[in-house]
Write a structure and sequence with these properties.
Layout lengths: L1 H22 L11 H17 L4 E5 L6 E6 L7 E7 L19 E3 L8 E3 L7 H16 L6 E7 L7 H9 L8 E4 L11 E6 L1 E10 L5 E2 L10 H10 L22 H8 L5 H8 L12 H4 L5 E9 L9 E2 L2 E10 L5 H14 L6 E10 L2 E2 L5 H14 L4 E4 L6 H9 L3 E3 L15 E3 H23 L2
Parallel strand pairs: 3-6, 3-7, 7-17, 8-16
Antiparallel strand pairs: 1-2, 2-6, 4-5, 5-18, 8-15, 9-13, 9-14, 10-12, 11-13
Helix pairs in contact: 1-3, 1-12, 3-12, 4-11, 10-12
Bound molecules: ligand BES and manganese (II) ion (2 copies).
The site of one manganese (II) ion has 5 residues, from loops.
């Protein structure tokens, strides 16, 4: 398959420039100021799929942002791969912390990426990874090596909860029928340690508001005599973990699956350096649930974290005031079997129950989703494993991730197929953070590896 390598080598500058053009489009789904840019990005993705050789491409409307759907059916008796990705990105804030503008991509070298990385919002999550599939498709159609049928389903609301897609999928089961779902929206351990993601955590995201007096008060005249919502909120939040960093919400761990010691031993074999981890984050110690390792804490264990907290005076200088309200946004990462609706309910009941007299508490649920684990004894995983082994020269390690792609469990339920998570990002790529980037090596390696997945999946299907 030297053919594939030379095709990539001959076209890599164009592949990079096309991705750069896509990254210039600020498709921030969370902020309505960018709604036209999100729609324009859908249009650009549509054109790219047409150019890559899809026979039929359309923009499918939903109650939210549209889905870009494309397909090439070469023979209905052959297997069909459904590719999912997202063209929306996270907000770029805080912009001040970017070394270069988030929607003006630049290529720079980093310690992890000596061959250079593209810096821009969405470079890794998920435009760069989604576009690897478009270019892999181009390669296969241009060289006549596409071995099976392909469908693309690229959405524009992943970063805000995939509501449009949750509406679209159950209404289009026939159209989306497939033998395997392929997604590149996760990561791998390191450029010389390939891994395949075998699990995602679920998510429950809530917002809380604590209200005390009906107006802001002078902190001298009233301080000490009425409940201060910020004091109360922080105390309530602090009580959500015990001294061993277990979550204290009654029932929170009820359905959590404990891994066997064999499974934990297997996990511990994945290469990991605690020193390098601490060094990369400039911390002198890790912190988390007692009895679990860092890699367990961030993948097989559920968590509760404050993502934002506000209230009172935060301007320059000092203002003596007791605020009327205090707020926080809280995420709970869940593991398979924990139902996100149940957990949201448990949180709400518990949080309301611990509020002292003198304040009122309001809990507003946001989006959420179930976790996902995929077995490795299926031809989808085997095809991915063979593909990585060939391009990286090493067998990839199966690894459960801490992140969430809530729509994945819906795919499994509605479309009844296995989901294969072939991620090529690194944890250090700073997704959702300032200076997000995606390695050129990773981008090109992805384009090289994906066609092999198609090849091996088609071959293994024949024997099944
Ligand atoms: N691609 C990420 C999820 C991810 C990243 C999984 C790396 C595994 C490894 C996705 O775009 C994402 O950011 N998901 C959100 C949830 C969503 C509902 C906003 C998350 O995990 O916070
Ligand atoms: Mn993503
Ligand atoms: Mn994301």
């Amino acid at each position: 398959m030297e053919n594939r390598k030379s095709y990539i080598e001959n076209n890599k500058d164009r592949f990079i420039n096309e991705l750069i053009d896509l990254l210039k489009m600020p498709s921030v789904s969370a902020d309505s100021a960018f709604s036209q840019d999100v729609l324009n990005t859908a249009e650009a993705v549509k054109i790219s799929l047409e150019k890559a050789g899809c026979d039929h491409v359309e923009i499918c409307e939903t109650p939210g942002y549209p889905i870009v759907y494309g397909e090439k059916i070469i023979d209905p008796s052959l297997p069909t791969v459904l590719v999912y990705g997202h063209y929306d990105v996270q907000p770029a804030d805080p912009i001040d912390l970017w070394d270069s503008p988030p929607f003006d991509p630049v290529i720079k070298k980093t310690a992890e990426h000596p061959q250079g990385a593209i810096f821009a919002r969405g470079a890794c999550d998920d435009k760069g990874q989604m576009y690897m599939h478009v270019k892999a498709m181009e390669y296969m159609t241009e060289t006549g090596t596409l071995p099976c049928n392909v469908k693309f389903m690229i959405e524009g609301e992943e970063e805000v909860g995939s509501e449009g897609l949750s509406w679209f999928v159950p209404r289009n089961r026939e159209k989306l029928a497939n033998d395997v779902i392929l997604i590149s929206d996760t990561g791998m351990i390191a450029n010389d340690i390939p891994s395949i993601t075998t699990g995602l955590r679920g998510l429950s995201y809530v917002e809380v508001e604590v209200t005390g007096p009906n107006r802001d008060l002078h902190s001298g005249l009233y301080g000490g005599a009425v409940a201060n919502p910020i004091n109360i909120l922080t105390k309530m939040i602090a009580s959500l973990h015990d001294e061993d960093n277990h979550v204290t919400i009654p029932g929170f761990y009820d359905n959590v699956e404990e891994l066997s010691s064999e499974e934990r031993d297997q996990m511990a074999e994945a290469p990991f350096s605690l020193d390098a981890y601490k060094k990369a984050l400039d911390i002198d110690a890790v912190y988390g649930e007692k009895g679990y390792t860092t890699n367990e804490r961030n993948s097989i264990r559920p968590t509760l974290d404050v993502n934002g907290i506000w209230g009172g005076y935060i301007g320059e200088g000092a203002k003596t005031v007791i605020a009327s309200k205090a707020n926080a946004k809280i995420s709970m990462r869940l593991v398979p079997n924990q139902d996100w609706n149940d957990i949201t309910e448990l949180f709400k009941n518990h949080f309301e129950s611990i509020a002292p007299k003198g304040v009122t508490v309001k809990v507003t649920p946001h989006h959420g989703g179930q976790g996902y684990v995929t077995p490795i004894d299926n031809i989808g995983y085997q095809a991915a494993s063979k593909a990585y082994t060939e391009t990286f020269g090493k067998t990839p390690i199966p690894q459960r991730s801490g992140g969430s792609i809530p729509i994945v469990s819906l795919f499994e339920k509605e479309l009844e197929s296995k989901i294969i998570l072939m991620g090529f990002g690194l944890d250090s790529d700073a997704i959702h953070s300032p200076n997000e980037h995606f390695g050129i090596f990773n981008y090109l390696k992805g384009i090289e590896t994906i066609p092999l997945f198609y090849k091996y999946f088609t071959e293994l299907s024949k024997n099944n």
